[in-house]
């Protein structure tokens, strides 16, 4: 299932105040909209992102477009902005529609919506109302309201793409959200787990709340890895999961895939969880001749179990031969499959050492790698 995100940011933020609309104001180092977009950019299941901007903010479009994000001009009401975004959306099966004004969205909330869309036409996060509810005028309670069965609606609200486009076309009037539009068209919408931290910035006080939430929840880690294997007898080498015919092999306890070992160490490094030898000791005979994807999958699974999303890996192989370029795409595909992220987040490249040192003399292959992990 191909999943797109549509982030609406064309409102004027009148209730929040400030010199610029709320989505352009800063929360720490980044603007509100940047936090919201980053929540989807780093999510491994999101393939494309479109954002909707106000006509007066289109000067901001180029910076997003340079990152591969589709930008479209919004309308006077939120639902008009959503419709403009839906019309410009890249090809996908389902779309998650999110307020730019919700910068603290996390991967668990997004995952819940995506999961529910396998069995429902629509799905959106909600929080059961826990406070007592009153009706009132400005300073006096005029009545109470039963809270049973009431939910506070959040975004992202997810739908099968064709169905929500049709629902918006036939909707008359101004909708509170896309769930209202979907339900008016007869779609069923599942309620998934919302998060009290997934607040919408609406009033001036919400900026400080959102900043506290982001400070508390964001954990970004970078790990690096380095490994070397010597050439020995053989007729092929394994590099990043790809078998490459060569007049020598690489020597090692396992299949000696120097690329996968380095990537594995980069992930363990980001988790501060030792190195490949800690988890798969070379003294243990069960790993003799083992396929190295076992090690990389273990590291990626460990990251996931600790609540991290692997957002990017970058690996540089250092050798004179074999030539890596013709195999780089197959290597990227293989690594992406092993660690369960999009291939666009996997980089495999190579360099020579200009005939200097042990790699230059063709005695072995070295590799360095970086992995980025995010918990939000
Ligand atoms: N014509 C509009 C109105 C709203 N939005 C977006 O819809 C989200 C939720 O709307 P809301 O919080 O009501 O934002 P504003 O309309 O900007 O706020 P206000 O009502 O205070 O002016 C925001 O990300 C906002 O930018 C939009 O894209 N186009
Ligand atoms: C879509 C929404 O975020 C759901 O809670 C909300 O309805 C949009 O904002 P508004 O404050 O209701 O305009």
What are the salient characteristics of this protein?
376 residues, alpha/beta, Spore Coat Polysaccharide Biosynthesis Protein SpsA, Chain A, 60s Ribosomal Protein L30, Chain: A, 2 domains, 8-stranded mixed sheet, 5-stranded mixed sheet, 29% strand, binds cytidine-5'-triphosphate, binds ligand LQXTBERG, metal-binding, IspD/TarI, isoprene biosynthesis
Kindly describe this structure.
It is built from 12 helices and 19 strands. It has helices spanning 32-41, 61-65, 78-88, 107-116, 161-170, 178-184, 205-217, 258-271, 276-279, 293-305, 328-339, 357-360, and strands at residues 3-9, 26-27, 30-31, 46-53, 70-73, 94-99, 122-128, 133-136, 141-145, 151-153, 157-160, 189-193, 219-232, 236-239, 242-245, 249-250, 309-318, 346-351, 364-375. Helix 3 (78-88) crosses helix 5, helix 5 packs across helix 6 and helix 8 runs parallel beside helix 10 (293-305). It is elongated. The structure holds cytidine-5'-triphosphate and the ligand C[C@](O)(CO)[C@H](O)COP(=O)(O)O. Cytidine-5'-triphosphate binds next to strand 1 and helix 3.
Write the layout of secondary structure elements.
Blueprint: E1 3-9, E2 26-27, E3 30-31, H1 32-41, E4 46-53, H2 61-65, E5 70-73, H3 78-88, E6 94-99, H4 107-116, E7 122-128, E8 133-136, E9 141-145, E10 151-153, E11 157-160, H5 161-170, H6 178-184, E12 189-193, H7 205-217, E13 219-232, E14 236-239, E15 242-245, E16 249-250, H8 258-271, H9 276-279, H10 293-305, E17 309-318, H11 328-339, E18 346-351, H12 357-360, E19 364-375
Parallel strand pairs: 1-4, 1-6, 4-5, 7-12, 17-18
Antiparallel strand pairs: 2-3, 6-11, 7-10, 7-11, 8-9, 13-16, 13-19, 14-15, 17-19
Helix pairs in contact: 3-5, 5-6, 8-10
This protein binds cytidine-5'-triphosphate and the ligand C[C@](O)(CO)[C@H](O)COP(=O)(O)O.
Residues 8-16, 21, 23, 52, 74-78, 81, 99-101, 200, 202 line the site of cytidine-5'-triphosphate (CTP).
